[in-house]
Each structure stands twice: as C-alpha cells, then as structure tokens.
C-alpha cells in the first residue's frame, strides 16, 4: 500500500538523479543546455507522477456505483 513516504522517496531519487546529471554531464559547448534539459525533465516527470499519485490517493470526487438503487446506498 502506498503511503506519504512514496512522495519523499521519489523526491530524493529525483534530487539524486539531478545531482548526477549535473556532475556527469558532458563538457563542451552545450553543457548548460544538456544539464538544464535533464534536470527539468526529471523535475517535470516527478511533478506529473506526484500530481497523479495524490489525485488517486485523495480523490476530489467520490466514485459512485450506478448499479445500486438509491435507497440501498450506505451513507
């Protein structure tokens, strides 16, 4: 079962990947472009995953079953 620690662990993994991208990016004319592309890609992927994870973990709308009669729905 997923917990709140998943977000923190995911963030730590992304920060480590960003630091490694910063350190091991190839030296040369396009070093800044390469670094920023990798780091922004890691950050965007993490944000998309975290938003999707939180949206499934705490949905704004409660799912409803359409095959139940209204008088049988527990409240």
UniProtKB/TrEMBL annotation:
One of its GO terms (biological process) is vacuolar acidification. It is a multi-pass membrane protein. One of its GO terms (molecular function) is proton-transporting ATPase activity, rotational mechanism. InterPro entries: ATPase_V0-cplx_e1/e2_su. Keywords: Hydrogen ion transport, Ion transport, Membrane, Transmembrane, Transmembrane helix, Transport. It comes from the Eukaryota. GO terms for cellular component: endomembrane system; vacuolar proton-transporting V-type ATPase, V0 domain. Belongs to the V-ATPase e1/e2 subunit family. This is V-type proton ATPase subunit E.
């Amino acid at each position: 079962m997923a917990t709140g620690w998943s977000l923190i662990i995911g963030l730590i993994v992304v920060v480590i990947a960003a630091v490694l991208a910063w350190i091991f990016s190839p030296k040369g004319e396009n070093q800044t472009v390469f670094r920023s592309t990798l780091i922004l890609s890691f950050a965007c992927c993490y944000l998309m995953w975290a938003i999707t994870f939180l949206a499934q973990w705490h949905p704004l709308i409660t799912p409803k079953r359409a095959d139940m009669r209204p008088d049988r729905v527990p409240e």
